[in-house]
Write a structure and sequence with these properties.
about 325 residues; alpha+beta; Sulfite Oxidase, Chain A, domain 2; binds ligand MTE; globular; 2 domains; 13 strands
Protein backbone atom coordinates (compact mmCIF):
# COMPACT_ATOMS: atom_id res chain seq x y z
CA UNK A 1 0.00 0.00 0.00
CA UNK A 2 1.16 3.45 -0.83
CA UNK A 3 -0.46 4.99 2.22
CA UNK A 4 1.21 6.69 5.13
CA UNK A 5 -0.07 5.36 8.44
CA UNK A 6 -1.00 7.83 11.16
CA UNK A 7 1.33 7.68 14.19
CA UNK A 8 3.30 4.84 12.58
CA UNK A 9 2.02 2.25 15.08
CA UNK A 10 3.40 -1.25 14.93
CA UNK A 11 1.83 -1.97 11.58
CA UNK A 12 3.80 -4.02 9.08
CA UNK A 13 5.10 -2.46 5.88
CA UNK A 14 3.44 -3.55 2.68
CA UNK A 15 6.45 -5.68 1.75
CA UNK A 16 5.83 -7.74 4.88
CA UNK A 17 2.11 -8.29 4.42
CA UNK A 18 1.98 -8.67 0.64
CA UNK A 19 2.93 -11.84 -1.18
CA UNK A 20 6.36 -11.46 -2.75
CA UNK A 21 5.21 -11.89 -6.37
CA UNK A 22 2.63 -9.10 -5.94
CA UNK A 23 5.18 -6.82 -4.35
CA UNK A 24 7.69 -7.47 -7.11
CA UNK A 25 5.15 -6.95 -9.85
CA UNK A 26 4.47 -3.54 -8.32
CA UNK A 27 8.16 -2.75 -8.31
CA UNK A 28 8.49 -3.53 -12.00
CA UNK A 29 5.42 -1.37 -12.60
CA UNK A 30 7.00 1.47 -10.63
CA UNK A 31 10.17 1.13 -12.73
CA UNK A 32 8.09 1.57 -15.88
CA UNK A 33 6.60 4.74 -14.44
CA UNK A 34 10.05 6.02 -13.53
CA UNK A 35 11.28 5.28 -17.04
CA UNK A 36 8.43 7.39 -18.40
CA UNK A 37 7.08 4.53 -20.49
CA UNK A 38 3.59 4.80 -19.00
CA UNK A 39 1.37 7.84 -18.61
CA UNK A 40 -1.82 9.18 -17.07
CA UNK A 41 -4.93 7.05 -16.48
CA UNK A 42 -3.34 4.20 -18.43
CA UNK A 43 -1.15 3.44 -15.42
CA UNK A 44 -3.59 1.66 -13.19
CA UNK A 45 -5.25 -0.06 -16.12
CA UNK A 46 -1.90 -1.40 -17.28
CA UNK A 47 -0.87 -2.54 -13.80
CA UNK A 48 -4.16 -4.33 -13.38
CA UNK A 49 -3.89 -6.09 -16.72
CA UNK A 50 -0.37 -7.18 -15.83
CA UNK A 51 -1.58 -8.48 -12.51
CA UNK A 52 -4.48 -10.42 -14.08
CA UNK A 53 -2.09 -11.96 -16.59
CA UNK A 54 0.05 -13.19 -13.69
CA UNK A 55 -2.93 -14.54 -11.79
CA UNK A 56 -2.52 -12.15 -8.88
CA UNK A 57 -4.89 -9.62 -7.37
CA UNK A 58 -4.81 -6.19 -9.01
CA UNK A 59 -3.90 -3.23 -6.88
CA UNK A 60 -6.51 -0.69 -5.76
CA UNK A 61 -5.69 2.93 -5.03
CA UNK A 62 -7.43 4.16 -1.88
CA UNK A 63 -7.03 6.70 0.87
CA UNK A 64 -6.82 5.62 4.49
CA UNK A 65 -9.82 6.76 6.55
CA UNK A 66 -8.18 7.16 9.98
CA UNK A 67 -11.45 8.03 11.72
CA UNK A 68 -12.77 4.60 10.83
CA UNK A 69 -9.61 2.59 11.29
CA UNK A 70 -8.63 0.46 14.26
CA UNK A 71 -5.10 0.92 15.55
CA UNK A 72 -4.77 -2.78 16.41
CA UNK A 73 -1.97 -4.73 14.76
CA UNK A 74 -3.17 -5.96 11.39
CA UNK A 75 -3.62 -9.65 10.77
CA UNK A 76 -1.12 -11.29 8.43
CA UNK A 77 -2.30 -11.45 4.81
CA UNK A 78 -1.70 -15.20 4.91
CA UNK A 79 -4.04 -15.72 7.89
CA UNK A 80 -6.73 -13.49 6.39
CA UNK A 81 -6.64 -15.44 3.12
CA UNK A 82 -6.28 -19.02 4.35
CA UNK A 83 -8.54 -19.12 7.44
CA UNK A 84 -11.97 -18.35 6.00
CA UNK A 85 -15.66 -19.06 6.25
CA UNK A 86 -17.21 -19.31 2.79
CA UNK A 87 -19.47 -22.36 2.82
CA UNK A 88 -20.05 -22.18 -0.94
CA UNK A 89 -16.48 -23.53 -1.15
CA UNK A 90 -16.54 -25.96 1.77
CA UNK A 91 -17.03 -25.88 5.52
CA UNK A 92 -13.40 -26.21 6.65
CA UNK A 93 -11.50 -22.98 7.24
CA UNK A 94 -8.83 -24.03 4.72
CA UNK A 95 -11.23 -25.03 1.92
CA UNK A 96 -12.16 -21.60 0.50
CA UNK A 97 -8.49 -20.87 -0.23
CA UNK A 98 -8.11 -24.27 -1.89
CA UNK A 99 -11.35 -24.27 -3.88
CA UNK A 100 -12.34 -20.69 -4.68
CA UNK A 101 -10.09 -20.41 -7.76
CA UNK A 102 -13.10 -21.71 -9.75
CA UNK A 103 -15.07 -18.53 -9.02
CA UNK A 104 -15.21 -16.29 -12.08
CA UNK A 105 -15.31 -12.68 -10.91
CA UNK A 106 -15.28 -10.91 -14.29
CA UNK A 107 -17.68 -10.08 -15.85
CA UNK A 108 -19.75 -9.50 -12.69
CA UNK A 109 -22.86 -7.45 -12.07
CA UNK A 110 -24.80 -6.46 -8.99
CA UNK A 111 -28.52 -5.83 -9.49
CA UNK A 112 -30.14 -3.40 -7.07
CA UNK A 113 -33.94 -3.60 -7.02
CA UNK A 114 -37.11 -3.61 -4.94
CA UNK A 115 -38.41 -0.55 -3.11
CA UNK A 116 -36.22 1.99 -4.93
CA UNK A 117 -37.00 4.79 -7.38
CA UNK A 118 -33.92 4.06 -9.45
CA UNK A 119 -33.24 0.32 -9.73
CA UNK A 120 -29.89 -0.35 -11.40
CA UNK A 121 -27.45 -3.03 -12.46
CA UNK A 122 -23.83 -2.09 -11.91
CA UNK A 123 -20.82 -3.88 -13.30
CA UNK A 124 -17.53 -4.04 -11.47
CA UNK A 125 -16.03 -1.01 -13.18
CA UNK A 126 -19.11 1.04 -12.30
CA UNK A 127 -18.88 -0.12 -8.68
CA UNK A 128 -15.18 0.74 -8.52
CA UNK A 129 -15.89 4.25 -9.82
CA UNK A 130 -19.08 4.94 -7.87
CA UNK A 131 -17.37 6.71 -4.95
CA UNK A 132 -13.78 7.36 -3.79
CA UNK A 133 -12.21 4.19 -2.42
CA UNK A 134 -11.19 4.29 1.22
CA UNK A 135 -9.01 1.97 3.21
CA UNK A 136 -10.50 1.09 6.59
CA UNK A 137 -8.79 -1.16 9.08
CA UNK A 138 -11.67 -3.01 10.75
CA UNK A 139 -11.79 -5.67 13.42
CA UNK A 140 -13.96 -8.56 12.27
CA UNK A 141 -15.29 -10.80 15.07
CA UNK A 142 -16.62 -14.18 13.98
CA UNK A 143 -19.53 -15.68 15.93
CA UNK A 144 -17.32 -18.73 16.50
CA UNK A 145 -15.05 -16.77 18.86
CA UNK A 146 -12.10 -15.63 16.76
CA UNK A 147 -11.23 -12.27 15.30
CA UNK A 148 -8.91 -10.62 12.78
CA UNK A 149 -7.93 -7.06 11.87
CA UNK A 150 -8.04 -6.41 8.14
CA UNK A 151 -7.40 -3.33 5.98
CA UNK A 152 -10.47 -3.40 3.73
CA UNK A 153 -10.96 -1.18 0.67
CA UNK A 154 -14.36 0.20 -0.30
CA UNK A 155 -16.84 2.94 0.54
CA UNK A 156 -19.87 3.37 2.73
CA UNK A 157 -22.90 1.45 1.51
CA UNK A 158 -24.82 4.72 2.01
CA UNK A 159 -23.27 5.83 -1.34
CA UNK A 160 -25.38 3.16 -3.03
CA UNK A 161 -28.49 4.04 -1.01
CA UNK A 162 -28.18 7.68 -2.11
CA UNK A 163 -28.08 6.72 -5.78
CA UNK A 164 -30.98 4.23 -5.87
CA UNK A 165 -33.33 6.47 -3.85
CA UNK A 166 -35.31 4.06 -1.64
CA UNK A 167 -39.08 4.57 -1.47
CA UNK A 168 -40.84 5.12 1.86
CA UNK A 169 -41.62 1.38 1.92
CA UNK A 170 -37.96 0.34 2.08
CA UNK A 171 -37.41 -0.77 5.68
CA UNK A 172 -34.73 -3.44 5.17
CA UNK A 173 -31.94 -4.30 2.76
CA UNK A 174 -31.26 -7.84 1.62
CA UNK A 175 -27.83 -8.95 0.33
CA UNK A 176 -27.80 -12.03 -1.87
CA UNK A 177 -24.64 -13.96 -2.74
CA UNK A 178 -23.96 -15.86 -5.93
CA UNK A 179 -25.04 -19.53 -5.75
CA UNK A 180 -23.71 -21.34 -8.81
CA UNK A 181 -23.02 -25.05 -8.45
CA UNK A 182 -20.70 -24.98 -11.44
CA UNK A 183 -18.36 -22.52 -9.79
CA UNK A 184 -19.04 -23.26 -6.12
CA UNK A 185 -18.68 -26.90 -5.06
CA UNK A 186 -20.29 -26.27 -1.63
CA UNK A 187 -23.59 -25.18 -3.20
CA UNK A 188 -24.25 -28.87 -3.91
CA UNK A 189 -24.36 -29.54 -0.16
CA UNK A 190 -27.38 -28.98 2.08
CA UNK A 191 -25.49 -27.27 4.88
CA UNK A 192 -27.38 -23.99 4.22
CA UNK A 193 -30.30 -22.91 2.06
CA UNK A 194 -28.71 -21.33 -1.01
CA UNK A 195 -28.24 -18.60 -1.99
CA UNK A 196 -26.58 -17.15 1.11
CA UNK A 197 -28.76 -14.22 2.16
CA UNK A 198 -28.07 -11.56 4.74
CA UNK A 199 -29.95 -8.46 5.75
CA UNK A 200 -29.94 -5.19 7.64
CA UNK A 201 -32.47 -2.63 8.76
CA UNK A 202 -32.20 0.32 6.39
CA UNK A 203 -30.83 2.66 9.07
CA UNK A 204 -28.11 0.11 9.86
CA UNK A 205 -27.26 -0.13 6.15
CA UNK A 206 -27.07 3.66 6.04
CA UNK A 207 -24.58 3.86 8.91
CA UNK A 208 -21.24 5.09 7.49
CA UNK A 209 -19.39 2.12 9.04
CA UNK A 210 -21.27 -0.32 6.77
CA UNK A 211 -18.67 -0.88 4.06
CA UNK A 212 -19.33 -2.00 0.51
CA UNK A 213 -16.04 -3.78 0.06
CA UNK A 214 -14.07 -4.30 -3.14
CA UNK A 215 -10.61 -5.00 -1.80
CA UNK A 216 -8.26 -5.73 1.08
CA UNK A 217 -4.55 -5.09 1.76
CA UNK A 218 -4.51 -2.60 -1.13
CA UNK A 219 -5.66 -5.13 -3.72
CA UNK A 220 -8.92 -6.43 -5.15
CA UNK A 221 -10.52 -9.12 -2.96
CA UNK A 222 -9.11 -12.63 -3.21
CA UNK A 223 -11.88 -15.07 -4.20
CA UNK A 224 -11.92 -16.77 -0.80
CA UNK A 225 -12.64 -13.43 0.88
CA UNK A 226 -15.76 -12.77 -1.18
CA UNK A 227 -14.57 -11.37 -4.50
CA UNK A 228 -15.40 -9.25 -6.25
CA UNK A 229 -17.77 -7.41 -3.89
CA UNK A 230 -18.97 -8.06 -0.34
CA UNK A 231 -20.18 -6.24 2.73
CA UNK A 232 -18.14 -5.70 5.90
CA UNK A 233 -20.10 -4.77 9.04
CA UNK A 234 -17.53 -4.52 11.82
CA UNK A 235 -19.98 -4.19 14.74
CA UNK A 236 -21.78 -7.43 13.85
CA UNK A 237 -20.67 -11.05 13.87
CA UNK A 238 -18.83 -11.93 10.68
CA UNK A 239 -21.64 -13.98 9.13
CA UNK A 240 -23.68 -10.78 8.60
CA UNK A 241 -21.06 -9.67 6.04
CA UNK A 242 -22.22 -11.47 2.88
CA UNK A 243 -19.60 -12.33 0.26
CA UNK A 244 -19.68 -12.35 -3.57
CA UNK A 245 -22.90 -10.34 -3.78
CA UNK A 246 -24.96 -10.41 -6.99
CA UNK A 247 -28.22 -8.85 -5.82
CA UNK A 248 -29.27 -6.20 -3.33
CA UNK A 249 -32.98 -5.81 -2.61
CA UNK A 250 -34.69 -3.02 -0.69
CA UNK A 251 -37.72 -4.60 0.99
CA UNK A 252 -40.63 -3.91 3.36
CA UNK A 253 -40.27 -6.99 5.56
CA UNK A 254 -37.35 -8.28 7.58
CA UNK A 255 -35.46 -10.68 5.27
CA UNK A 256 -35.15 -14.41 6.05
CA UNK A 257 -31.40 -14.75 6.34
CA UNK A 258 -29.36 -17.93 5.74
CA UNK A 259 -28.05 -18.60 9.25
CA UNK A 260 -31.23 -17.44 10.94
CA UNK A 261 -33.20 -19.92 8.81
CA UNK A 262 -30.72 -22.70 9.58
CA UNK A 263 -30.71 -22.18 13.39
CA UNK A 264 -33.01 -19.36 14.56
CA UNK A 265 -32.27 -19.83 18.27
CA UNK A 266 -28.51 -19.50 17.63
CA UNK A 267 -28.23 -16.77 15.00
CA UNK A 268 -30.49 -13.76 15.39
CA UNK A 269 -31.28 -11.22 12.71
CA UNK A 270 -29.32 -8.46 14.44
CA UNK A 271 -26.26 -10.43 15.58
CA UNK A 272 -24.50 -7.40 16.97
CA UNK A 273 -21.27 -8.35 18.73
CA UNK A 274 -22.35 -8.50 22.37
CA UNK A 275 -20.22 -10.07 25.13
CA UNK A 276 -23.29 -10.18 27.40
CA UNK A 277 -25.38 -12.39 25.15
CA UNK A 278 -23.91 -15.85 24.88
CA UNK A 279 -24.42 -18.16 21.97
CA UNK A 280 -26.57 -21.06 23.31
CA UNK A 281 -23.54 -23.35 22.99
CA UNK A 282 -20.65 -21.10 24.04
CA UNK A 283 -19.74 -17.81 25.73
CA UNK A 284 -19.24 -14.66 23.66
CA UNK A 285 -17.32 -12.83 26.41
CA UNK A 286 -13.87 -13.30 24.89
CA UNK A 287 -12.17 -14.03 21.59
CA UNK A 288 -9.02 -15.48 20.13
CA UNK A 289 -7.20 -13.06 17.80
CA UNK A 290 -5.88 -15.11 14.90
CA UNK A 291 -2.09 -14.76 14.83
CA UNK A 292 -1.89 -14.39 18.62
CA UNK A 293 -2.54 -18.02 19.29
CA UNK A 294 0.86 -18.98 20.69
CA UNK A 295 1.20 -21.14 23.77
CA UNK A 296 1.01 -18.23 26.22
CA UNK A 297 -1.40 -16.03 24.28
CA UNK A 298 -4.30 -14.75 26.36
CA UNK A 299 -7.78 -14.47 24.92
CA UNK A 300 -9.04 -10.91 24.44
CA UNK A 301 -12.16 -9.53 26.03
CA UNK A 302 -14.88 -9.05 23.43
CA UNK A 303 -16.17 -5.48 23.34
CA UNK A 304 -19.79 -4.36 23.00
CA UNK A 305 -20.46 -3.72 19.30
CA UNK A 306 -16.91 -5.00 18.77
CA UNK A 307 -15.74 -1.61 20.09
CA UNK A 308 -17.71 0.39 17.48
CA UNK A 309 -19.79 2.42 19.94
CA UNK A 310 -20.77 4.82 17.18
CA UNK A 311 -23.59 2.46 16.28
CA UNK A 312 -25.18 2.36 19.76
CA UNK A 313 -27.83 4.96 18.88
CA UNK A 314 -29.22 2.61 16.21
CA UNK A 315 -30.40 0.34 19.01
CA UNK A 316 -31.46 2.77 21.74
CA UNK A 317 -34.51 1.49 23.61
CA UNK A 318 -34.13 -2.04 22.21
CA UNK A 319 -33.69 -5.09 24.42
CA UNK A 320 -30.56 -6.57 22.85
CA UNK A 321 -31.04 -9.87 24.67
CA UNK A 322 -34.36 -10.29 22.91
CA UNK A 323 -33.21 -8.82 19.59
CA UNK A 324 -29.92 -10.73 19.56
N1 LIG B 1 -20.83 -15.06 2.79
C1 LIG B 1 -21.19 -16.13 2.05
N2 LIG B 1 -21.76 -15.93 0.84
N3 LIG B 1 -20.98 -17.40 2.46
C2 LIG B 1 -20.42 -17.67 3.69
O1 LIG B 1 -20.26 -18.85 4.06
N4 LIG B 1 -19.47 -16.73 5.76
C3 LIG B 1 -19.59 -15.61 6.71
C4 LIG B 1 -19.24 -14.27 6.04
N5 LIG B 1 -19.84 -14.16 4.73
C5 LIG B 1 -20.04 -16.56 4.52
C6 LIG B 1 -20.24 -15.25 4.00
C7 LIG B 1 -18.81 -15.77 7.92
S1 LIG B 1 -19.38 -16.96 9.03
C8 LIG B 1 -17.73 -15.01 8.22
S2 LIG B 1 -16.96 -15.12 9.74
C9 LIG B 1 -17.16 -14.09 7.22
O2 LIG B 1 -17.84 -14.16 5.97
C10 LIG B 1 -15.70 -14.46 7.00
O3 LIG B 1 -15.07 -13.55 6.15
P1 LIG B 1 -13.49 -13.75 5.82
O4 LIG B 1 -13.33 -15.18 5.37
O5 LIG B 1 -13.16 -12.77 4.77
O6 LIG B 1 -12.76 -13.50 7.12
Amino acid sequence: MLIKRPNGLDLPFSSEITPREVFESRRSFMRQIAAGTLAGGALLEMANRQAFAQGINPKLVSKLNPAYSAMDKQSAYKDATTYNNFYEFGTDKSEPAQNAHTLKTRPWTVTIEGEVKKPMTLDLDALLKLAPLEERVYRLRCVEGWSMVIPWVGYSFSEIIKRVEPTGNAKFVEFISLADKKQMPGVGSRVLNWPYVEGLRIDEANHPLALLTLGMYGETLPNQNGAPVRMVLPWKYGFKSAKSIVKIRFVKEQPRTAWNLAAPSEYGFYSNVNPEVDHPRWSQASERRIGEDGFLAKKRKTLMFNGYNDVASLYSGMDLKKFF
